[in-house]
Design brief:
With 168 residues, the protein is an alpha+beta fold. It has one domain (6-164): Aminopeptidase (3-Layer(aba) Sandwich), CATH 3.40.630. It is 24% helix and 32% strand. It has 5 helices and 9 strands. Strands 1, 2, 3, 4, 5, 6, 7, 8 and 9 form a 9-stranded mixed beta sheet that branches. A hairpin with a 2-residue loop joins strand 3 (58-70) and strand 4 (73-83). The radius of gyration is 15 Å and the shape is globular. The mean pLDDT is 89.
């Protein structure tokens, strides 16, 4: 990373279109069919817990956290984490991940859920969820359902169906 031209900052409304274009480039239209997308569909992410990475004035990475429910308990869903193809393996994704996890913990949240590659996400504190402990709203490989417990006992606390968070 080039510290002089790299800026990691909270996502701002003026970033939304560029973030969406980056996600389209990275994941294509198939991203809409993913189980985790169903939890985010039509729901605003948490702007104070979502971040962008800019290099030389260009958006090259983004991570979002969105409130969800797992059973009756509030958690966060991470995703998408997206990095421009030309910036892969340069630490952009890791910087975004460490920032998002730290911000969620500092904000008092208990856990972050995601569907992803354990070998990548374990360095950020994610653990595999016991098979059947958390059910996604669509198909998801149980080995890819991961949780980052932010407080003691969080991994054991969360059980049930992951669903969209709705304020009552």
């Amino acid at each position: 990373m080039n510290a002089l031209s790299d800026i990691l900052k909270p996502e701002a409304p003026e970033d939304y279109d560029a973030v969406e274009m980056l996600a389209e480039t990275a994941f294509g239209p198939g991203r809409f069919a993913r189980s985790a997308f169903r939890l985010r569909e039509g729901v605003m992410h948490e702007p104070d817990l979502s971040f962008t990475f800019h290099r030389s004035g260009h958006l090259v990475g983004s991570v979002k956290l969105t409130k969800i429910l797992i059973g009756d308990d509030e958690a966060l869903l991470l995703g998408p984490l997206v990095v421009a193809p030309e910036c892969k393996n340069e630490g952009v994704g890791a910087a975004l991940m460490f920032k998002a996890v730290e911000a969620a913990k500092n904000a008092g949240h208990e856990a972050i859920l995601l569907v992803g590659d354990f070998d990548y996400y374990k360095k950020f504190g994610f653990e595999q969820v016991n098979h059947g402990q958390i059910k996604m709203p669509g198909p998801a490989d149980p080995a890819r359902i991961l949780m980052c417990p932010l407080v003691d006992g969080a991994k054991e606390k969360f059980n049930g169906v992951a669903m969209q968070y709705a304020k009552t």
